[in-house]
Write a structure and sequence with these properties.
InterPro entries: Methyltransf_11 (IPR013216), SAM-dependent_MTases_sf (IPR029063), Thiol_S-MT (IPR052356). With 214 residues, the chain is α/β, with parallel strands linked by helices. It contains 7 helices and 7 strands; from the N terminus they run H-H-E-E-H-E-E-H-E-H-H-H-E-E. 34% of the residues lie in helices and 25% in strands. The chain starts with 7 loop residues before the first helix and ends with a strand.
Length: 214
């Protein structure tokens, strides 16, 4: 059966680049911050090659990791075997999560909302599968604060960037989208990766916690 998402060249590039960013670019620290204090059942969408798995705290009883791209899913499955918490890597897309409603204590979206084809629908699915009061942990890149940089991002999104980078869009506003989907933002902070030196179209990041209302 043909995979819904199929980006083999980008998957190979991302698998190498993400490890470099974790070890040399400080992204592993953001992953630890993202997942700190989680407990119970967790669903992670767009798990990629599974770099989050090593940072889940022991209080997490189960992670169901959704990854649509075959090569990345294989790498994630290998990473799941090394994790200190139970991880089940399964195929699927964020817009149609193959799990029951209100089944999870927390959801994790990590550098994935840029690539989903239907962002409102994906966030609606995350809200559906969370129990009332459940947390959405998010670590995403998005639109820049400055007008010139944001304009450049929008031009890239309309031209070559999604084609070259596995459907990635640089000018989305994940925080606004999360609020529009009915989540309550509990906390967030913005930063740049890398913190020093020239910015790239994907440098402008936000990390935070949102909750599904009771």
């Amino acid at each position: 059966m043909r995979d819904t998402v199929h980006h083999p060249l980008f998957a190979r590039f991302y698998a190498r680049m993400s490890v470099t960013m974790d070890t040399r670019g400080g992204v592993a620290g953001y992953r630890r911050e993202l997942l700190a204090g989680l407990s119970g059942r967790v669903i992670e969408v767009g798990a990629g090659n599974g770099l989050n798995f090593a940072h889940y705290p022991a209080a997490v009883s189960e992670v169901v990791a959704i990854e649509p791209e075959r090569r990345l899913r294989q790498l994630a499955a290998t990473a799941g075997l090394r994790a200190d918490v139970p991880v089940d890597v399964v195929p699927g897309v964020a817009e149609a999560l193959p799990v029951k409603s209100e089944a999870y204590d927390a959801a994790v979206a990590s550098l994935v909302l840029c690539t989903v084809r239907d962002l409102p629908r994906a966030l609606g699915e995350l809200r559906r599968v969370l129990r009332p009061g459940g947390e959405l942990r998010f670590f995403e890149h998005g639109v820049a604060g400055g007008r010139a940089a944001a304009t450049a991002q929008r031009v890239l999104d309309r031209t070559v960037w999604p084609l070259l980078f596995g459907g990635c869009h640089t000018a989305r506003d994940p925080l606004a989208a999360i609020e529009a989907a009915g989540f309550e933002i509990a906390s967030h902070r913005r930063f740049r990766i890398p913190e020093q030196g020239p910015a790239t179209p994907t440098s402008f990041c936000v990390l935070g916690v949102a909750r599904r209302p009771d």
